[in-house]
Amino acid sequence: MVMEALTGGARAVARCDLLGVAPYSDMEGGLYRGYLTPAYVAAQEALAGWMEGAGMTVRRDAAANLIGRYEGSIAGAPALLIGSHLDSVRDAGRYDGPLGIMLGVETVAALNESGRRMTFPIEVIAFGDEEGSRFPAAMLTSRAVAGTLEAEALELADGQGVALADAGVDVSNYLSAARAPGTTLAYLEAHIEQGPVLEAEGLAVGTVTGIAAQLRYQIIVRGMAGHAGTSSMTLRRDALAAAAEMILGIETVAQVDASDLVATVGKLEVLPGAANVIPGEVRFTIDIRSGDAARRDGAAGLILRALADIAARRGLDYAAELVHDLPASPCDPALMDIMDIATTVAGQPVRRLVSGAGHDAMVMAALCPTAMLFIRCGGGISHNPAETVDPADAEIALRVMLGFIDRLGGTFDDA
Ligand code: GLV
Ligand code: MN
Ligand code: MN
What we know:
Elements: H1 8-18, H2 38-53, E1 57-60, E2 66-70, E3 79-85, H3 98-113, E4 122-127, H4 140-146, E5 184-192, H5 197-200, E6 205-211, E7 213-222, E8 226-227, H6 239-257, E9 262-264, E10 268-271, E11 277-278, E12 281-290, H7 293-313, E13 317-326, E14 329-330, H8 333-345, E15 352-355, H9 360-364, E16 370-375, H10 391-414
Helix pairs in contact: 1-3, 1-10, 3-10, 6-7, 8-10
């Protein structure tokens, strides 16, 4: 396939496909791109070339985000940031994150090809750690840019024990990635919907109204390891049997709530992890989300109490550490209106919808007004290698984004 022969939307999709395999993946036979891994560095190198080809100057900030800049016509004007994330979950789809970056590159490429500049600069930013799939914290690099990251949050090590400080960034300088307030006009993120609504309604794109609140905990349950053949059932302190009861309790709390509340145990480690040893320790994560922060917090309280009760009844030690608390993040109402108009001008029906998935936009909202455009994905499937997106939908998204930028310019010029 000759990339240059493709239209912008199709080229954005093709580039995501290209980044879906080695050397841009750290995983054999699938896609995993962790923050600061060899695959991450390789993907940044490819992206830097594409940014330069679209007429941008490229830099890597102190949090190892890659940023391409296309100057505006008014010196010193605040920049429109367009971005999403380059990292992925393990065994990922190809479009969760990279598609929003590639569409950002294509918006600039389209302006550059027609010799246009807006009054404001446009910066395309590829964030590095949205998923939290390598280090036990998510949205590190957008929090650094938004200026909401604390220095203590950088004391992290990955599953192999590699500290963030030894992974390819200077942690003593990391927080200098923060953008000064007032230097950013707005943040725009295009992303696959990761849900079924647009497909079910036959729509290519939707305007995001806001992002659900998230909580994440790391749980440790400690019992006693022992011989699987000689320890009678009554004397055991089996950490995995307790964790199994806890996980079902978590599921029940979310099911009984019967709202948009969701609770997930997505990662479980069993120690020592041998067929003939009673599990002595289990570590697992809990991810709790709702559009309503009070509902989310109420469910978290119920869950933590249930877990403590189960541990006490079984005579086990139990600890819960809060690793991540992101409030619900509404998108900017004026920018939603601009997105709706751009959607109409692109010949598409307007559909507003909320995001259950987290995005860098929810962090960037601390810095500037945010807007998000959702793009239909096949079967609503995401966080799965079966993720698909139709290049024709990406083309529509690109047209909407260009219309959004035009109208944002009008808004800014009139201000
Ligand atoms: C990111 O994909 C999240 O919603 O956790
Ligand atoms: Mn994701
Ligand atoms: Mn994503």
